[in-house]
Structure prediction request, 227 residues.
Amino acid sequence: GAGVSQSPSNKVTEKGKDVELRCDPISGHTALYWYRQSLGQGLEFLIYFQGNSAPDKSGLPSDRFSAERTGGSVSTLTIQRTQQEDSAVYLCASSPRGLGVRNEQFFGPGTRLTVL
Amino acid sequence: SQQGEEDPQALSIQEGENATMNCSYKTSINNLQWYRQNSGRGLVHLILIRSNEREKHSGRLRVTLDTSKKSSSLLITASRAADTASYFCAVANQAGTALIFGKGTTLSVSS
Prediction:
């Protein structure tokens, strides 16, 4: 079946502009995660959605970052007034349910964001 | 940081040799996972080991877990050029809402 998809695959924007990144999780997966990976670094957790529960936004680095998950499926990560330090690969992952049990995460290919 | 520090940061070996990567973490865990990343894009799950397991095998992969030392190792036997990638260990955060990854080990296998 189809895996996690993300769009766009690459995004170049100018400092100060807003960007939207999209994630389509695997059908039926109730848990969805956004991570950020800066060059040569590990993954940094941003936000977690689980079903209809309130999302865990504790990883969002500033109020310029927000995310929505509509209808329990597609998610959009929005970065307002982008800064150069926002340049990174943004990775989305989904899993059949949350991490409470032994669940692997299925990752999309990521969106490489470059802020000039 | 909370968890997930891999060692070494980089490893270069010849095809056919074995590669061993280590991971340390700081808190109690239910399980530990290893992921592989090619070319800085999406991660692929390799193997999951539960806290009550000491060793697990999957093909050419062997993972060990020592909860008393809060450490794990990933062994890739008979490496191939296609194994060239970055490898990350990951454990759940305290809230159980996300995985915490280390910075990874970059493995380079030359033919």
Notes: The radius of gyration of chain B is 13 Å. Chain B has a mean pLDDT of 91.
